[in-house]
Write a structure and sequence with these properties.
The protein is of the alpha+beta class. It has 3 domains: 313 residues, TIM Barrel; 96 residues, Jelly Rolls (Sandwich); 123 residues, Galactose-binding domain-like (Jelly Rolls, Sandwich), CATH 2.60.120.260. The protein is 21% helix and 30% strand. The strands form 7 sheets. It has an 8-stranded parallel β-barrel, surrounded by 6 helices. Strand 23 and strand 24 form a beta hairpin. The longest helix has 18 residues. It holds the Pfam family BetaGal_gal-bd.
Length: 592
Amino acid sequence: MQTFEIKEDFLFDGKPIKLISGAIHYFRLTPGQWEDSLYNLKALGANTVETYIPWNIHEPVEGTYDFEGLKDIEAFVKLAQKMGLMVILRPSVYICAEWEFGGLPAWLLKEKGVRLRSTDPFFMAKVRQYFSVLIPKLVPLQLTYGGPVIMMQIENEYGSYGMEKEYLRQTKQLMEEFGINVPLFTSDGAWEEVLDAGTLIEEDVFVTGNFGSHSKENAVVMRKFMERHGKKWPIMCMEYWDGWFNRWHEPIIKRDGQELAAEVKDMLEIGSLNLYMFHGGTNFGFYNGCSARGTLDLPQVTSYDYDALLSESGEPTEKYYHVQRAIKEVCPDVWQAEPRKKELVDLGSYPVKRSVSLFAAKDKMMQAKQTMYPLSMEEAGDGYGYMLYSAEMNNYFRENKLKVVEASDRLQVYVDGEHQATQYQETLGQELTIKGQSNQESISVDVLVENLGRVNYGFKLNSPTQSKGIRGGIMQDIHFHQGYKQYPLMFSTEQLEAIDYAAGMNPLQPSFYQVEFELENVGDTFIDCSAYGKGIVLVNGMNLGRYWNVGPIRSLYCPKEFLNKGHNDVVIFETEGQEITELTFSEKAIVD
């Protein structure tokens, strides 16, 4: 039986080893991409792959678990072992990772006042239930049972959030109770305050750092921290940031490959590292995260290209070769090879066949949830994407005041079917003036609210704003209106099949556009969204994610696994009143 120990060095079967690892998130790739990505990591000169495990994709509904397809963590780990790689797993309930709510499931927010990432009894009971399902799947994958997993994380950057050591202890105890016996670790920034707050060094939980430069200086801080606690462990950077993530409205962030290679060389001379990211992939569906900056929440884009060593689609970049050479300089005995390339294709253009307004289609797509006061998105649906609130208000046949109170994140107000306002960030909650039609006793008010992504890092994790939809209500004049119909748009197979395209089109309203076409061959491709406004694209029922004409990225990556040889059905949900006439594929990403 092979062994892995952490003493003054990492010891594999009793012999010192340098961990050269790269981050590949199985859930951001299709299973068909896993092998090429893992091969290219090994060809780089690496011996280890690291991945987070997001709670929210594995328990999307409380008590309902999903480990199929791109969520099959066991298959991913076994494939890594088959390809000769060790594995570092990070199953902590919070992952950050520019992922929706840092991996925490939205349904937790149904419990008002829950204190996340703490010993709150409600929270820890849910952690126990989740771990009781997840951890037994991971136990046989440990090196101690013949698997490739050498280490597991108990919490992620906790020192950047809290300092409750008892929470860390309870999490560690749960992992051990359910069978984890490989070394455990925490990862935090490399400065004293967060290391003090976020580690469990006094209980022999290995300490790793997260940084992307100044390797020697950061190593000195980590080494002094360990020595102060009587430890002489090796230095490891668990997230060596080789690029960065991107947000809507902002320029794409790039990092020079030669500069990175020089820093990687410095780090490898000091200790071990995990390149974050090696292959970033895609935030499919509604799983993009969000940054918190002051009073603003700044959602991240669908692409998680990250300017990593492999592009979003898996193509080796110039940066890959720079880092490959740097590894060889420090570790001349590592095995390296030419990476596998990726061919992307242009699959042509296809006309929109049918379209229908959401307002015309909604009642056949789903049964409205009727309440006196508005429900949050977590209460009415799965907590992701969009929810439509519809209300009938008295028509006083003069101008009236209207205000939506306490809503997140972006809302569009329609009065008698006409767009009245879009409110977002600084304009949320501003008072509007409305007037009904002269021949009707009531005014139809529809408010489409979009959850643009919950924060994944920082002080807002427990903020009420992370509960999405309308939390307060809609005011007419100076009173709260009572009586709502709520339509959670979850884009399930059932909802998509129930769209009645004959119900009535109106491109000025949020609308569904259907494109049907035949393909003789499929391939990895991009969908050109540069002529669209804002919305999502579903390919044969798979939600590719959000597009938005504010940039910086104006396309969506579509892996070949989502396409069919033969008949294909694409649905575009467009919210900005931008009429869509065709679907166009591209062999490359379209960026500003």
